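Encode chain A's predicted structure.
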Amino acid sequence: MLAAYAAAFAERSQRIVLNRIMPSVESFSRTGRGCPPGGALLLGAGLRACWQFALYLLCFALLALVFEGLDSQRRGPLLRTINWPMMYVAAMLGAVLSLRVRKAYGVLLASLCLAAVTLMLEYSL
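Encoded structure for chain A:
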């Protein structure tokens, strides 16, 4: 969920940066001097690719650290039970997060908390 907020923040920041280029693009359209529209498009696509790649690497590294930490605490057998249906559920979480609706975030957070409490109760008994 934090990655969704980080991506939304990065996208907003990118829009602010690209809005600064618009006068130069307008100038190019009128006088032929300034930033051509193709250059602005290339810059926008390049910025987006860079920050999305960096966010992906950060999330991947955090997940690797979490799994390594769980594995070092002898919770490995629990991790080995992950199968394809569980992966599909995780992918559906991304679809819910892409809605960017506060109620969807609330329902998702409540569901994850309920699932975590259920798992903790199940494995502590």
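The chain has a mean pLDDT of 84.
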